[in-house]
Write a structure and sequence with these properties.
By secondary structure, the chain is α/β, with parallel strands linked by helices. Helices cover about 50% and strands about 20% of the residues. It has a domain of about 150 residues: TIM Barrel (Alpha-Beta Barrel), CATH 3.20.20.30. The strands form 2 sheets. It has an 8-stranded parallel β-barrel with strand order 1-2-3-5-8-9-10-12, surrounded by 8 helices.
């Protein structure tokens, strides 16, 4: 298994400490979200200088608030700092956020992502761009080269998954269970990649994990902590595909052996990397971390 750790903090010193421990524990990757706290790429630039033996990823940067030309400059800078250890995860976010908080149009999101990639991908490949879309335009290039930066896209619907397979390095999922990975995500993105003559795509699955001897309270905590995702349409659609009631049913909760078995289920379904989102009491988090180390070594 290839296990990564998904973490979130606004304390940069703590982030460096976490990254050093993640590397010491033998995990391949540390992923950081871009929500409403610290800027993920800036923070990872600091961490990359301090921790040389770890890969980094964003999970994910919302595209609408950042012009792709500016994001390309940020991502290339981090790829340069890290020596090519950075994977740029991007996503649409949600209509509630883009329209309700930023006041931007969420119309035709697949068109938006297609035009976004028309600018972003050539710039990340150290190539100049002349792109004029319906909503996004960029003419020019960036003045420095950097190691290649793989781009993965948070994609759940068929059209976005096909776009991922055709143009990106893969997809990054959240609140998506193994049955949905096996029956929907993996076949859709792989068929698109094969038709486009592209390499096998990455399928990155981030999932809440809690090793515990008392699943009842852990399920209640998961239902509360991750409640918001059950009401967001894109995640709700994936839970309906999985046939579960809510986020707590996606979370991996149980004994060490039960959690490791369910982790294996994601890889059997087609995931290439599973990011553990560790939650629970301090003791449960320690036990969960031990289980993830063990699974990663298996």
């Amino acid at each position: 298994m290839d296990i990564g750790i998904f973490t979130q903090t606004d304390d940069i010193d703590d982030l460096v400490r976490q990254a050093k421990q993640i590397a010491a524990d033998g995990f391949s990757t540390m992923s950081l979200p871009q929500i409403f706290g610290v800027d993920a790429i800036t923070a990872l630039g600091v961490v990359a200088r301090e921790v040389p033996d770890l890969k980094f990823a964003t999970a994910v940067i919302p595209t609408y608030p950042r012009h792709p030309g500016m994001l390309a400059a940020q991502a290339k800078t981090l790829s340069h700092i890290s020596g090519g250890r950075f994977t740029l995860g991007i996503g649409l976010s949600h209509q509630l956020v883009i329209e309700g908080m930023f006041g931007m149009s969420f119309e035709k999101p697949v068109r938006h992502m297609r035009e976004y990639l028309d600018v972003l991908l050539p710039l990340l490949a150290n190539e100049p761009v002349s792109a004029e879309g319906e909503t996004l335009t960029f003419r020019g290039g960036l003045s420095f080269n950097a190691p290649p930066t793989p781009v993965v896209i948070a994609a759940l619907g068929p059209a976005m998954l096909k776009l991922c397979g055709t143009r990106a390095a893969g997809t990054s999922t959240w609140m998506t269970g193994p049955n949905t990975i096996r029956d929907h995500v993996a076949p859709t993105i792989r068929e698109a990649a094969e038709a486009a003559g592209r390499p096998e795509p990455q399928i990155i699955s981030s999932v809440p994990v809690c090793v515990t001897a008392d699943p009842g309270p852990a399920l209640e905590r998961a239902a509360t902590q991750f409640e918001i995702y059950g009401g967001l349409p894109s995640y709700r659609a994936m839970m309906d595909r999985e046939g579960v009631a809510g986020p707590a049913d996606i979370a991996l909760i149980g004994s060490q052996s039960e959690v490791i078995e369910r982790l294996q289920g994601f890889f059997d379904a087609g995931s290439t990397l599973v990011n553990g989102v560790v939650f629970g009491t301090p003791d449960e988090q320690a036990e969960t971390r031990q289980a993830l180390v063990l699974a990663n070594q298996g």
